[in-house]
Amino acid sequence: MLFVEFDFVDMFCYICSMKKTGLIGLGVISKYIIYGLKYSKLLELKAFADIDEKTKEKIKDHKGNFYYDYIEMIRKEKLDYVIIATPPQTHYEIIKKCLNEGVNVIVEKPGVLDLKEWNELVELAKSKSLIFEVMYHWQNGAEVKQFIADYDLSKIKRIKIISNDPYSEDGRTAIADRVGLGGSWIDSGINILSLLKMFLPFKEYKILKVSNVLCENSKIPIASDIKLTIDDVIVDIEIDWRNRINQKTTEVDFIDKKVILNHTMQKIICDNHEKCCSKIERLKTHYRNYFVKFNENIDLEASRKVHEILLRVRDIYEKNQKVYYFNN
Predict the structure, then answer these.
(1) Of 83, 217, 253, 315, which is most buried with the most CB atoms under 10 A?
(2) Are the beta carbons of 90 and 180 closer than 8 angstroms?
(3) 224: closest CA among 187, 173, 263?
(4) Can you state the percent helix, strand and coil of the chain, rounding each to 5?
(5) Single pTM value for the model
(6) CB atoms within 10 A of CB 139
(7) Which residues are paired to 248 by β-bridges?
């Protein structure tokens, strides 16, 4: 007979080390967050909160209590963490209240829509010794991880990123339930910039071009054409909600080669050779990889720089500011 030694002390310590976590917002992306959390060795999902009773149906197969009031959820469940997956314009208020309740915060991108709010929340989190983390899912693509491992990023000369989402049915207006995303630049620009931060140090940047096509009803951008230089690398960004497709690619020109990251198919293409990096659904891969690696080590400075560029581009088209140059 084979006897296996089992250390109950280690098991008890492991269970006790898990952080009780609640999810605020049960919209489109919540199913991927729930999926990804299954792979976390730190966060244990215990409860859900949403103001819409219909969303309870989404969690019928998951353990955990449902609340309409996220503050009630925090207090009754004695949570260590909350994950916020509500529309961007609600983030600041919810983050601030959660931090004041003494709870660590992970929030879907973008974290805030105002740099003053960012600075305030960072200082609040520091004063309470709490974590304030923004979750960028593109960074965690299998193809991104493989690309960083395979190539010398210091030799990048130019980057072009094309991002298509099917968020307009007529090519003139945004689908109603996508208006809350804030438009093509705010929704996709934050992911694109967080991806670029994996490739480039972001020591200096220059905004060269900002052009948008606006929704006829809501006036938010439904297509964006942005050109930057980041650390002397030319960056072209094209975002479009009008093509009725979900397709995302990054073309990277090195000194001696071109490499294409097909984010949709999770492939890397170079010299007519394709490398498939994952066969798991793209967003499932992203959120699984995020929660696997999450260990409470937070790079707030990198996250601030991503938001800084995002919001300064937005200011150019919303406030009719001139294109301008910033560096450190």
Answers:
(1) 83
(2) no
(3) 187
(4) 40, 30, 35
(5) 0.90
(6) 20
(7) 163
